[in-house]
Specification:
The complex is a heterodimer of chains A (247) and B (249). Chain A is mainly α. Chain A has one domain. In chain A, 84% of the residues lie in helices and 0% in strands. Chain A contains nine helices and no strands. Chain B has two domains: 156 residues, 3-Layer(aba) Sandwich (Rossmann fold), CATH 3.40.50; 66 residues, no CATH class. The longest helix of chain B is centred in the last third of the chain and has 18 residues. In chain B, 40% of the residues are buried. The chains are: A mainly alpha (247), B alpha/beta (249). The structure holds adenosine-5'-triphosphate and magnesium ion. The site of magnesium ion has 5 residues of chain B, from helix 1.
Chain lengths: 247, 249
């Protein structure tokens, strides 16, 4: 219990350092662009694949579960769209990125810690926490919502293709369904959730990396711990935000 | 000049630095020697503020480092260059980017003048034609030299070198020692070198400080090191049988 409290304390101290003013904007800016390429563009592939297949699977399952002849067929399109928007895309992308970017952030920063590169930054008079984490944080908070929107689109495309080739819902019903009573507000909600997840992923992974001591073994362990904690926190945040906004 | 007054530092109730008092002189190589684990690295990291001391004072030319806030410390650190025991080059950057890093961060020069400075520093440490290599592609000695180049890029007033020549062959080791010593004199900076290599102590030790179990045990010049009656230091200096036999002759 005491340990948890001291961890939270150290996390908050680190956050304050992360949010301090950059030594030099141009360098932070360039670094942010680089991180966007790494963690944003670099994740499009995996997000696309996962979303596409999940979208297809949800469509088949929803069709399988709603066999009531009284309900119009387009309701399947509506359900697929809303499950992707409200739940699947943001959480799925969050978990995928926690695995991909979170682990890499934790091990990169951890490795820099154990090889004294962070000390070297500090001795130069650079705020290492800000220099290492601020660009990543900005890059992910901007890019995760974009990935989430992309995931919704590709999930819907997956469903569409299933309708096209398989014997699920007529394509016209599906298309009608995914357009039926669409609240843009749902999309904003999903993207907001993603931004919160991005904040959690970067800062938790950064925290674990920043406070490693030891060697390669500890770096590996801390990146695993960061992933586990990130998953838990993302799912908890999901519950809290859903409760706050949709209720 | 750096002055240390009554420095104490402990890890879990174990004092690693125990009442250290010393003056590191300007324009000279101040060499701290001592066995492995005697607290040399801890001392150096305490002086630059990477480790917080438990009590005592550290003065950089009359400026009290211990009492400074974070902002002031960051300003003062722009006057420091440090060579870590393991080099601590940024492994995601090339050699050139490593040396240019402090310039990018703290100067507003244009690219070509920064590049000129980088080339000058690399030339100074005898590294040529490796600008575009990643640091992982360098040998141990080259890595040390690149790290020195990075440390002197901003013309520091205080230079700290933690075992600059450990793990190097004697010839390269002496080259690095001489390099540090030359830079110190040329730019009149205050240099602190940690070492447990007697060769380099005799080569560059303008002022030699021996620490033993965290206490300051002896202080003198490189000439005096060989003729001391301090027993602990004698055991350290004449550790090998060869040295012992030469001394007996
Ligand atoms: N972060 C730390 N936590 C706990 N103890 C530490 C820490 N850093 C160093 N020590 C202890 O302090 C003592 C001095 O270590 P230090 O690294 O200063 O030795 P050194 O003189 O630099 O040795 P070497 O010549 O091998 O580099 C050692 O006993 C070490 O166990
Ligand atoms: Mg050491």
């Amino acid at each position: 219990m005491l340990k948890a409290l001291s961890n939270i304390g150290r996390y908050l101290v680190m956050l304050r350092a992360v949010f301090s003013k950059p030594e030099k904007f141009s360098i932070y800016y360039r670094q942010t662009i680089r991180e966007m390429e790494d963690h944003g563009l670099g994740s499009i592939g995996i997000v696309a694949i996962v979303s596409f297949f999940v979208g297809a699977a949800i469509t088949i399952q929803t069709d399988f579960n709603i066999e009531n002849p009284l309900l119009p067929r387009y309701i399947i399109g509506v359900t697929v769209r809303d499950s992707l928007l409200l739940e699947f895309s943001s959480t799925m992308v969050g978990l995928v990125i926690a695995g991909k970017s979170g682990s890499s952030i934790a091990s990169q920063i951890g490795m820099m810690r154990v090889t004294e590169q962070i000390d070297a930054l500090e001795v130069m008079g650079i705020n290492a926490a800000a220099y290492l984490m601020q660009p990543k944080l900005i890059a992910l908070v901007i890019f995760l919502p974009i990935l989430c929107a992309l995931s919704v689109a590709l999930g819907l495309l997956g469903g569409y293709l299933v309708c096209l080739v398989g014997d699920v819902v007529p394509v016209s019903d599906y298309i009608y369904g995914i357009q039926y009573v669409f609240y843009p507000y749902y999309l904003a909600y999903a993207m907001l959730k993603s931004a919160v997840y991005a904040f959690i992923i970067t800062t938790v992974a950064g925290y674990y990396g920043y406070h490693v001591s030891g060697g390669a073994l500890e770096v590996g362990r801390s990146s695993t711990q960061a992933f586990v904690l990130n998953c838990i926190l993302i799912l908890m945040a999901n519950l809290v935000i859903t409760n706050l906004i949709l209720h | 000049m750096i002055t240390l007054k009554n420095l104490y530092k402990k890890f879990d109730d174990q004092y690693v630095l125990n009442d250290l008092n010393m003056t590191l002189e300007k324009g000279k190589c101040n060499v701290v020697i001592g066995q492995s684990g005697s607290g040399k690295t801890v001392l150096m990291k305490s002086i630059v503020g990477l480790l917080e001391i438990d009590s005592g004072e550290i003065l950089y030319d009359e400026r009290n480092f211990t009492r400074m806030g974070k902002k002031e410390r960051q300003l003062l650190r722009k006057e420091m260059g440090m060579l870590f025991q393991g080099g601590a080059l940024f492994d995601s950057l090339t050699v050139e980017e490593n040396v240019m890093f402090p310039l990018n961060m703290f100067t507003s020069d244009n690219y070509s003048s920064k590049l000129k400075r980088v080339d000058f520093c690399l030339e100074r440490v005898g590294l040529r034609g490796v600008n575009q290599l990643m640091t992982a592609e360098l040998s141990g000695g080259m890595r040390k030299r690149a790290a020195i180049a990075r440390a002197i890029a901003l013309s520091p007033r205080y230079l700290f070198c933690d075992e600059p020549n450990s793990g190097l062959d004697p010839r390269t080791a002496i080259r690095i020692d001489n390099l540090i010593s030359e830079i110190t004199r040329e730019y009149d900076i205050t240099t602190l070198v940690n070492s447990h290599d007697m060769n380099s102590v005799l080569e560059i030790g303008d002022k030699v400080i021996y620490i033993y179990q965290g206490c300051q045990c002896w202080e003198g010049t490189k000439e005096e090191v060989l003729h001391t009656d301090n027993e602990a230091l004698n055991n350290f200096v004449f550790a090998t049988r060869m040295a012992q036999q030469i001394k007996d002759i």
